[in-house]
Amino acid sequence: MSRFLAGKAALVTGSTSGIGLAVLKALAGAGANVGMHGLGDPKVIAKLRDEIAAESGAQVAYSAADLRKPAEIREAIKSVAGELGGLDILHNNAGIQFVSPVEVFPEEKWDAIMDVCLNSTFHATKAALPYMIQAGWGRVINTGSMHALVASPYKSAYNAAKHGVAGFTKTLALEVAQKNITVNAICPGYVLTDLVRNQISSTARIRGIPEGSVISDVLLADQPTKQFVRPEDIGAFVLHLCGPNSAAFNGACLSIDGGWTAR
Description:
globular, Rossmann fold, 3-OHbutyrate_DH, seven-stranded parallel beta sheet, 263 residues, alpha/beta
């Protein structure tokens, strides 16, 4: 793989597993030094960092910042940028989910989803932008999900937060359009990550159907390929948005959903 990101530094939130980990590996493979973020077993995370560093030659920083706390987000950006010598690429990827009808949706769950999925995107981006402006180049990529474009029942907080991410993406793209910084949202269909796996049982309970039917008749019902999106495909997509021929991608909410939003 071409190491076209050599000399760049990237931070991916929620990158200890799933989509974020695939993106982190892709960025490191293209030559970027990377900041891993997320929760998990410290021994497992340390092993992942060592493996990525050994495979790519990249420097791998780490932060366990609580994305519900703006002060910790700011400190994470400062710490990772300090360790990596700047911050050129920010992928706001971390997300949480809760499935429930609105009339019984726990308010604390609503607030947590808004903090992690939407508010942290603002706080992290605000803290990262000065590094990009100083460098004269930057890429902000937000994970919007197809739920930034269309809605699904029983996911009111997630739908609202991701629609907010889409609006934030477009607004910021206009603000930095002449600073050699682009801002885009990727909008994946269902990817078989831990976040999606955890929805299967709760959705089965709410709808009163078997878990197998949740996959075929709910999750993949509107995904024409009837296949989950692969994390590796998303990693490749993010690489393109950071590549030498990506400057015209700006303010876009880009579907990678097997045709979900084509209907």
